[in-house]
Every structure is written in C-alpha cells, then in structure tokens.
Amino acid sequence: MNRRGLILSVLALGVAGFGGATWFATRPGPVAEAELVAPELADAMIRPYSPILGPADAPVTIVEFFDPACEACRAFHPIVKDIMAEHGDAVRVVIRYTPFHGAASEEAIRVLEAARMQDVYEPVLEAVLREQPRWASHGAPEPGLILQIAATAGLDAEAARTQMLAPDVVAILNQDRADVETVGIRQTPTFFVNGQPLDPFGEAELRRLVAAEVAAAQS
Questions:
Q1: Per-residue pLDDT tens digits for 110-123
Q2: How confident is the model over 187-203, as pLDDT tens digits?
Q3: For a FRET experiment, which of 49, 89, 142, 149 has its CA 20 to 30 Å from that of 214?
C-alpha cells in the first residue's frame, strides 16, 4: 500500500469509529422496566365510570391523572392525542380527575361531567383546554365563563347548571379525590401505561413506553 492509500485507510477507520461512537451516544434509550402498580391499588386506578378516550377494548391503556386547570396537562393533551392517532385502535386513555387547583378545577370537572351527560364530552374537553388561560387564570375569571366556553362546543349551558350539581357528579369528584390520595399522586399529569408508572416522566418516555406495550400486545 502506498502512502496515499495508507492515509485514506486511516481516515476511513476514523470516520467509521466516529460514526459508531455517535450512534452509541445518540441511540434511543431502552424503555425502563417499572414495577406494576400493586394489585391492591387496581380498583383505585380505573373506575367503571371513568371517562375513556378511544376504543373501550383497546389492549393498551394510558391512565392519566388529569387536572383541567393544569397547564402541563394542557401542554400534554396534543401529545396524548398524537400517540393515540399513531397507534390507531390499540390505545385508549382513561381520565382520572385530579382537582389540584381548587375551585377552578372542580368547576371544570363538573362542566366536563355535564358534557358527558349531553354526549359532547370530547369537543367540550377540547374547548376547555384551548381556552384554559382565560378561565383558569390566577386572577378572578368572569363568573360562568367556562360554561360560556363549553357552550361554544355544543354544551347546553342551562341544562348543565343543574347537571353539574347532580349527586353522581359529586360522587365522582369524591371518589377520584380519594383514589388520588390512595395511589399517591402528587402532580399532574401523571401517567400509567398498562399499570406501569411513567418514570422518568417525559414525552419521549411516554411514546416509548406506549410503543413497547403496543408491540407486546401485537406479538
């Protein structure tokens, strides 16, 4: 091998080595294996009345402890929808109410439950989250503003005023508060995928964990 050939060979080996090192440093991380929720907590994770987005019989279940007044929940909502769209009928989302923001959270949950009674849950959920900066501000939102917002998405606001006070809605709020305490939820959103807590928390981690569970369900 002449001198030029020797130099080219050394450069090629260097490029190959650099490429390998780059791949190793940037390769997708493995899905962390988290412990499943303890069996005694299973009932507190999903209740028969819990709202479900997506097909009820999907093999992969994301349980989201969710506060409609939470800015991070609002930020994650399009991500969750994108994950559902990516996996088609394989993924469903079970919503557990987590009213960490006091009266604003509770009123929003009551509006959502009224929307469920009127079969306009998802469009009202979209409107409530889209307009969250208006009704969930830390100032003094206009009374009835969230009902006005929900009405633009199809809610009968007059009927909702009565429905929001129904005993069933009060019971859901009370049970979800108790379950939040039982499971030990301290922040929103908090996600579980087929019983596994999302830890560490993050969009990429959620996407990986859901994809792994979908692949396992389809294998």
A1: 999 999 999 999 99
A2: 999 999 999 999 999 99
A3: 49
Could you tell me the CATH superfamily of domain 56-218?
Glutaredoxin (3.40.30.10)
What is the 3-class SS of the chain, one letter each residue? CCHHHHHHHHHHHHHHHHHHHHHHHHCCCCCCCCCCCCHHHHHHHCCCCCCEECCCCCCEEEEEEECCCCHHHHHHHHHHHHHHHHHHHHEEEEEEECCCCHHHHHHHHHHHHHHHHCCCHHHHHHHHHHCHHHHCCCCCCCCCHHHHHHHCCCCCHHHHHHHCCCHHHHHHHHHHHHHHHHHCCCCCCEEEECCEECCCCCHHHHHHHHHHHHHHHHC
Q: Where are the domains of the chain?
A: 56-218
pTM assigned to the model: 0.82
Of 55, 142, 58, 136, the residue nearest 101 (C-alpha): 136
CA dihedral 42, 48, 50, 56 (to 10 degrees): 100
